[in-house]
Write a structure and sequence with these properties.
It is built from four helices and 42 strands. The longest helix is centred in the N-terminal third of the chain and has 12 residues. A hairpin with a 2-residue loop joins strand 20 and strand 21. It is mostly beta strands and 752 residues long. 5% of the residues lie in helices and 55% in strands. It has a 22-stranded antiparallel β-barrel. The protein starts with 6 loop residues before the first helix and ends with a strand.
Length: 752
């Protein structure tokens, strides 16, 4: 049996072998004193430590559909390590936004209603008839809707955040960026582990994994399971229950079959069942005295974590999938086939009025939504050999998506009960052919050319019935409609890459982004919503430099970009029969520009510093105001929602080797962002002010015997913040994050 804890084990052992013993405080001071001055990066090798030179671990990414060094790929990419995410109690896509300044996330009471943003651009919509601006890809499989990937991610190797249009190579359309998620491959060595964590608030997480060779040199496998639960950090004063928690269990398995050196077949299956009871918003501000009175005994405030509701908002969610990836070496060429199916079932219950009693002024609203979703995809890709004048990756892609939903709303007044039920479905088929070439003009100068053709077919059906023949609050009269649309779109990339030296590369690229047509299909859909939205297109210029210096101890990656979007698909407030609703429209033209910096410094064998900084100026250039808009259309020049101008992240990790083979590991990180507006209509009450979150951890590990125990503290400064603020008419409500207040936890891991 082998004791495995990844690269952390190797690093700790090398530290013990390469350094003399010193008092712990002395090591910390020595490590900080070793930070080089800017002019010290070219130090005389004779002065280096004789035993072992500290270096950064090389990072490999698949941003160009080939395995390549992060420092060589001509794309702006941020990489987050999977094991570190689990150690930091960051368990899904939503939790990594603090570490990647260019990435933002819109949460919701249901994971079905979430959205991702890169460089300030994303799509906010509950409609199944619109595709995301930011694509999510897991092990080569494109996920059609972002909510499919917002639960816990099992057996995670790394997450690559590719910034800017990536539609040329990544499955479907990705007009703003891609989350390329890679899970761990089975290993030949037989190993297993159990990982148990407890956190304040009665949060428990258990992971168990086992893997190794099933048939020597031919078949390897791995299996990982998860059990997690959390009571929550919001109190319902109506019944005394704690909410905003979860209960999840899941499993992921892989088989890797290699009958010959030229053929590899990887089969993967995953299943995640989740019960989440996030409230449908916690009231942070009452806009009328009447609503403030109805909310009693809860008092609205910016850090409120109490609700008073008679309907329990919660979600039952099942995500599952199968995939088969075949990699076949045809001489120096590689043919890759990825066949996948994914299923998704989601049932949500929501308290629409957010109150515990029905009054004449405030009727009760309760919603139930059911989702049955299936997608099938097939990708064929051919990669040419490396080292030739002409290198290329090309292929074809097909995806079929079927989404069926039923949404029911019950309106209860002091004198009557009204119900509306809508059944709606969407079906889409996407076909594409793509290719990207690299022309190696010299050993230092390369040209980049990529092109993708996409044909999208989209259709919908919608039927709504109502117990009322006329419009009542929140329920429109009965209606039915259907429609279909098909569009052809082009996307691609052109660029030059030039190596200033063996350790410094620069690139300049132009990218064309494309996002297909859409329908605004939702419960209260009206005849005015039956027209298809036009495709969204973008043009992006990016210049970057990636440098490795100081004997591979320092990496600095800088990107400067400008993007312009036409026919931007966005939600805006509109009026239908006297009621304010959100309506998906072609909002006009927007642009985003900025500067991004990622860096890592192995200051000493013990001390590593890393971080990222992003300035993103995402603005509305010209807004196409819809007829009868309920909110002000005077938003030109205003920021796009969920896009702070500044975000930063810094991290320090320090290891102290002990004489008895133990290691003490210290870690701390701090994330900060400037003010952010959550509403495209620029509501003054939906701004979150600037804030920072400080976390820290200390661990004791014995890697030779395969165990580690850690204590961590989250949000040590006890800063309350809101990842979502929205208007409910007579009040403002907010989402409450897991780290809305200080909390602590302990983690234990044993490898065998």
């Amino acid at each position: 049996m082998h004791n495995i804890l990844g690269d952390q084990q190797k690093l700790a052992q090398s530290i013990r072998a390469a350094t003399p013993r010193r008092p712990h405080l002395g090591w910390l001071l020595a490590g900080l004193a070793a930070l080089p001055l800017p002019g010290a990066y070219a130090a005389d090798p004779a002065t280096a430590v004789a035993e072992q030179e500290p270096t950064l671990k090389s990072v490999t990414v698949t941003a160009t559909r080939r395995e390549e060094s992060l420092q060589k790929v001509p794309v702006a990419v941020s990489v987050v390590d999977g094991e570190q995410l689990e150690r930091d109690n960051r368990n899904g896509v939503a939790s990594i936004v603090q570490q990647v300044p260019s990435l933002n996330f819109r949460t919701g009471a249901s994971n079905k209603d979430t959205s991702l943003f890169i460089r300030g651009v994303g799509t906010i919509s509950t409609s199944p008839g619109v595709e995301p601006t930011v694509a999510t890809v897991i092990d080569g499989v494109v996920y059609a809707r972002p909510g499919q990937a917002t639960l816990d991610l099992l057996d995670l190797e790394r997450i690559e955040v590719l910034r800017g249009p990536q539609g040329t190579l990544f499955g479907k359309n990705a007009s703003a960026g891609v989350l390329n998620i890679v899970t761990k491959a089975p290993t030949a060595d037989t190993h297993g582990y159990i990982d148990q964590a407890y956190y304040s608030g009665n949060e428990s997480r258990t992971r168990f994994g086992i893997g190794g060779s099933l048939i020597p040199d031919t078949l390897k496998g791995s299996l990982t399971t998860l059990f997690g639960s959390y009571d929550g950090n919001v109190d319902n004063q109506h019944n005394g229950q704690e909410v905003n928690g979860y209960n999840r269990k899941g499993v992921r398995g892989k088989l890797e079959f290699t009958p010959s050196d030229d053929l590899k077949l990887t089969l993967a299956a995953d299943y995640m069942q989740s019960h989440d009871d996030a409230p449908n918003g916690v009231v942070s501000k009452a806009l009328t005295p009447a609503f403030a009175g109805a909310l009693n005994p809860v008092r609205a405030s910016s850090d409120n974590r109490d609700i008073n509701t008679d309907t329990r908002s919660h979600v039952e969610d099942i995500n599952k999938g199968l995939s088969a990836q075949l990699d076949w070496n045809l001489g120096d060429y590689t043919l890759t086939s990825i066949t996948a199916w994914r299923g998704w079932n989601n049932t949500q219950y929501q308290d629409g009025d957010r109150l515990g009693t029905v009054t004449a002024a405030f009727p009760g609203t309760a919603d139930k939504g059911d989702l049955d979703f299936n997608q099938y995809s097939q990708e064929l890709r051919l990669a040419s050999p490396k080292g030739q004048f002409l290198e290329y990756v090309g292929g074809v892609f097909y995806m079929h998506v079927k989404d069926e939903e039923t949404y029911q709303r019950t309106l209860t007044t002091t004198t009557s009960v009204n119900r509306g039920i809508a059944d709606y479905s969407t079906r889409s088929d996407s076909y594409s052919a793509f290719g990207e070439t690299t022309l190696n003009f010299t050993s230092s100068l390369r040209g980049i050319a990529g092109l993708r053709w996409t044909h999208d077919q989209l259709e919908y059906e919608h039927r709504r019935s109502s117990t009322s023949a006329v419009q009542v609050s929140g329920i429109q009269p009965a209606t039915s409609s259907s429609g279909s649309v098909d569009e052809d779109g082009w996307s691609g990339r052109l660029g030059l890459q030039y190596d200033l030296s063996d350790t410094v590369t620069t690139y300049l690229t132009y990218s064309r982004g494309y996002k297909g047509p859409a329908y605004n299909v939702f419960f209260n859909m009206q005849p005015r919503d039956t027209d298809a939205l036009k495709p969204e297109t973008s043009n992006t210029w990016e210049v970057g430099i990636k440098a490795t210096s100081w004997n591979n101890r320092l990496t600095t990656n800088l990107a400067v970009f400008h993007s312009a979007y036409d026919n931007y698909q966005a939600n805006f407030f509109d009026t239908v029969a006297g009621q304010v609703v959100t309506r998906l429209i072609n909002a006009g033209s927007v642009s985003t520009e900025g500067v991004e910096l990622d860096y890592a410094l192995q200051a000493t064998q013990q001390l590593k510093l890393s971080g990222a900084l992003a300035y993103t100026r995402a603005r509305i250039d010209e807004f196409a105001c819809p007829a009868g808009a309920a909110a002000s259309c005077n938003v030109n020049g205003k920021p796009l929602p969920f896009s702070p101008d500044w975000k930063s992240y810094v991290r320090a990790d320090y290891t102290i080797p002990l004489d008895n083979g133990l290691d003490i590991e210290l870690g701390t990180d701090y994330s900060w962002q400037s003010e952010v507006q959550y509403d495209i209509s620029q509501n003054v009450d939906t701004k979150q002010g600037a804030y920072g979150i400080w976390n820290a951890s200390v661990a004791l590990a014995d890697y030779s015997n395969g165990w580690r125990v850690a204590l961590l503290g989250k949000n040590l400064a006890d800063k309350s913040y809101s990842p979502l603020l929205a208007s409910g008419g007579s009040y403002i409500y907010r989402a409450v994050p897991r780290d809305d207040e200080r909390y602590f936890g302990v983690q234990l891991r044993k490898d065998f």
